[in-house]
Design brief:
Number of strands: 0
Distance between the termini: 40 Å
Structural class: mainly alpha
Number of domains: 2
Helix content: over 70%
Length: about 240
């Protein structure tokens, strides 16, 4: 299932999108400031709480973000490899592995946000935080990405399934990558043309009426936690 907004009654669903955006930023800053085993262990607990409060399982998030794992694993392998004695630099590989793991934690928090926040609320939050034309442009772009990316992921999944049904999985890796990438690019361009036509047909507006946003008591502990993460990152 594509990782996108799903209605629910979890704690994260009830939070203001601005609160969730602030927490994401604070969590990412803390993750990049504390790339140590103890720091990442503490952040792992925070990420686990975030997933639990969003009704998102770690397995589901890992499956949806599986396309980034080859890159995250390549970093430690390349960092550990050496062209001469001792041939394997264990400490460099371990440090790179910790850096890759922090990216996974940030992706977990992002998955919770995507699952619990409607696209229109995300756009409204961004336009509240960034005033003027810049906020309208940024909010519109984020809204387009959130709506368009799940569609492209579904297209790629269907292309792979169709290829496997035609024994495409028996081809070499390069041939399979070429087939999926070319077909996916062609489908994306076709989607983009239809998307542009749909926007014109619906009289697309750069400044539509956005949903009202308001903070509640549930936002207070999350805001306090965000401030705490930022202070921890600075200290």
């Amino acid at each position: 299932m594509t990782l996108s907004y799903r209605p629910g009654d979890s704690l994260a669903h009830r939070l203001d999108p601005r609160t969730k955006l602030a927490f994401q930023v604070a969590f990412a800053v803390a993750a990049f400031a504390h790339t140590t085993p103890k720091g990442l262990l503490a952040l792992s607990g925070v990420a686990g709480v975030v997933l639990a409060s969003s009704d998102v399982s770690a397995r589901e998030a890992l499956v949806e973000y599986r396309f980034v794992f080859p890159f995250l694993l390549a970093g430690p392998l390349l960092s550990a490899a050496a062209l001469g004695p001792p041939w394997i630099r264990w400490q460099a590989g371990f440090d790179s592995l910790l850096a890759s793991y922090r990216v996974v934690l940030v992706l977990f928090v992002s998955a919770a946000y995507l699952r619990t926040t409607p696209v229109r609320d995300s756009r409204a939050a961004i336009q509240h935080l960034v005033p003027g034309k810049a906020g309208q442009l940024l909010g519109t772009g984020v809204g387009f990405v959130f709506r368009f990316l799940p569609v492209l992921q579904a297209d790629l999944r269907r292309i792979r399934d169709a290829s496997s049904a035609r024994l495409g999985d028996q081809r070499g890796l390069i041939d399979r990558m070429k087939l999926v990438s070319i077909s996916g690019l062609s489908r994306a361009l076709s989607r983009a043309d239809r998307f542009a036509l749909a926007l014109r047909a619906r009289c697309f507006s750069w400044n539509p009426t956005l949903p009202p946003l308001s903070f509640s008591r549930a936002d207070v502990p999350v805001i306090v936690g965000s401030v705490g993460l930022l202070l921890w990152a600075i200290i």
